[in-house]
Amino acid sequence: MNDYLPPSLSKIYQRLGIWAIAFMLVFVHACRVQPVDPTQPGTGSPTGKTADQYSADVAIQWASLQLKLTKTTAGFSPTVASRAYGYAGIAMYEAIVPGLPDHQSLAGQLQGLTTLPLPEANQTYNWALSANAAQASIIRNLYVTTSAANKALIDSLEKVLNAQFKESDEPANQRSIAFGQKIADALFEWSKTDGGHEGYNRNFPASYVVPTGPGLWQPTENGLKIPMQPYWGQNRTFLKANNDLPMPKPLSYSTDVKSSIFAQYLDVYAKSKNLTQVEKEIAVWWADNPTDTFTPPGHSYSIATIAVKTAKANLAKAAETFARTGIAVSDAFVLCWRCKFVYNNLRPYTYVRLAIDPKWIPFWPAPPFPGYPSGHATQSSSAATVLSDLYGDNFAFTDDSHVGREKDVSRNVEFKPRSFKSFMESAQESADSRFFGNIHTRQDNETGLAEGKKIGANINALIWKK
User: Fold this and answer.
1) Quick one: CATH architecture of 209-460?
2) Regarding the domain with residue range 51-191, which homologous superfamily does it belong to in the CATH classification?
3) pLDDT digit string (tens) for 333-350?
4) What pTM did the predictor assign?
């Protein structure tokens, strides 16, 4: 056979060779496994019922237990408690979000949280069991110092809910439990890097040097020399957008009777002289003192629980509710405390005695930390903002969080349920309660409400759905 080819035919073969090579490259590339976003479920989605087909029982019962643990565990100040609600809420959401095809994980959206464990592709999961396992694990770690009796309650609830929600597919049950535990373990490891880990051991750090000078915070009637958690504002927020919010600024200090700041404190003093019975009830209802209650952020978490029950939400809606609310109160406390310890603003107790009436006694004792802005107002507003986004601006509910508590005999106040036409109405009353209690000025409350709305709006702006 003649090896010689005419030039025209040779060029044709060369072109065919080039096309063949190109085709093979495309074919090989197409056969390769494409990279998967590590923050999202794998290309093969889990099978079985989606998370929105389960009741909210798991979420409600764990939220209720966490409120009890916060009240009865030493060291769970409002700041420490807010953080615990944040991580527990996120754990609840991340344990079930792979079972919601239209929802998005928070991995890659929260500071320092780059990846989370993924479920096995094309395998059946029971999302109620995943949520149960995640809550049991994260709460054990967050409340590791709680009493033996409380630890028994955690174990008992986990077993009861496992028995209630397990199904006939035992491998799926075990797979679901293991996934929930992995989520909780990963989130707890992440939590150790935020600056607030084991904060219950350092509520009042003896090494802190209290700044002194005109207009700066001083110990009040409780006699505590060190303010609570002076470094909490240095902690990492969940959202970078919240961390980057500009810090508000209080009115300039002055004791001049014509100054704007004098008018603020005089207003508090005047209110103390004409409190109505209803205003006293409001002040006591929202006080939420640690050890007596689940703390102020717990009150918001309790309202979230009430919303879930009132709306008859499913597990998916409940988990997102607790995640958003937990993040809201946690970031609110970090930013509020950051501002408090930048300005070290005087409490009314100190200012009024200094500039108006040296023998004045307020209706409610001042907490042991600076005044501006109000923590109640900030966290209540932030929580109300996320809850309004989930349930609507006109969601009516009855707050029965403190029903059953013994009467406050010294102030002649009973704990009666309070009804609201919206979450923002309850946030406003929470803020007003601190003015009625004579422990915050109106500027403290107004600033807290405004900043809380910004914090909550940033949380709502996360990518919750795909």
Assistant:
1) Orthogonal Bundle (1.10)
2) Phosphatidic acid phosphatase type 2/haloperoxidase (1.20.144.10)
3) 999 999 999 999 999 999
4) 0.91
